[in-house]
UniProtKB/TrEMBL annotation, chain A:
Similarity field: Belongs to the PREY family.
Species per Swiss-Prot/TrEMBL record: Hibiscus trionum (Flower of an hour)
UniProt name for this protein: Protein preY, mitochondrial
Matches recorded under Pfam families: Trm112p
Species classification: Eukaryota, Viridiplantae, Streptophyta, Embryophyta, Tracheophyta
Ranges in a coiled coil: none
UniProtKB/TrEMBL annotation, chain B:
Annotated NCBIfam families: MenG_MenH_UbiE (TIGR01934), PRK00216.1-5 (NF001244)
Substrates-to-products reaction catalysed: demethylphylloquinol + S-adenosyl-L-methionine = phylloquinol + S-adenosyl-L-homocysteine + H(+)
Function: Involved in the biosynthesis of phylloquinone (vitamin K1). Methyltransferase required for the conversion of 2-phytyl-1,4-beta-naphthoquinol to phylloquinol.
Name of the protein in its database record: 2-phytyl-1,4-beta-naphthoquinone methyltransferase, chloroplastic
Amino acid sequence: MVRLTNWLLQEAGTGISKTLSEILVCPLSKQTLRVCEESASLISDSIGVSFPIKDGIPCLVPTDGKILDVDDTMKDDNAAQDSASTNKE
Amino acid sequence: MSCLQLSVPPLAASRSKRATIRCASDRQELFNRIAPVYDNLNDLLSLGQHRIWKRMAVSWSGAKPGDSLLDLCCGSGDLTFLMSEKAGERGKVIGLDFSKEQLSIASSRQYMLSKGCYNNIEWVEGDALDLPFSNGYFDAITMGYGLRNVVDKRRAMQEMFRVLKPGSRVSILDFNKTVQPLTAFFQEWVIDNVVVPTATVYGLAKEYQYLKSSIDEFLTGKELEKLALDAGFSYAIHYEIGGGLMGNLVATR
């Protein structure tokens, strides 16, 4: 029951656990990734690419990446600035 | 990562059959295709022995409770689940594979299995040649029947080296490319007369015929040891198991 609840909770958000999102880095630049809940993806700001999360599994094969166009990057930049200011290490 | 474009004349049919499963995306498709029957076939073809070899591989990796562990080319998760048992509740295991179908099966198995400690497993779709992990993160890595299938073995070894903590080990289980003529003959006989006919029953003859050329193109134990040392590992030894049919490379960073 607990497992099912955890699984459902995970699926409700982006589908990946916080621990996992902290472990993963961009497969190409090896820099940190940013979780984007809206698009259920992991964003590599260093190279401007987003990687999808499907059925709770992050898809980080380089060819899975989608190059973000400028509008997406600017929208994500604002989100990044907001989250960066609250998540400063 | 582009796929090689092969335009082959009709006369070279047999060579093209061998050549078409060369690039990464073809291999990805192959593993997606065999995913549904992969586990059953492995049991059948090795008479259950693969379970023992996998336990040996995990032992050799040095995985222990509380560790952060990585299982590369995890497929449907056999080695991942064994690593999970070693890591325990305080540990963490990541199962990485480039086949969505295999990961989907692995994830379902995790949900169906009753052991609580399997909650410490996370599945990631990724490429062994471009690992999405930072340097020196893992306490141990396993790779079962994966190295033979990656298109750039040197690069895969370098990536494994990069993500391992100093002093930690990688344990790579695969078929043994034997230099012993009798073992080689036996291995080929088993593939021709047991593996492929059985796979044919499942409609996967072509996929398992790939096995013979794949072993042929693989590296011997000595060559694998050299590959590991060239990648920067300080110590590498290749053990032959399963009567010489299988081999396990253990390399220490």
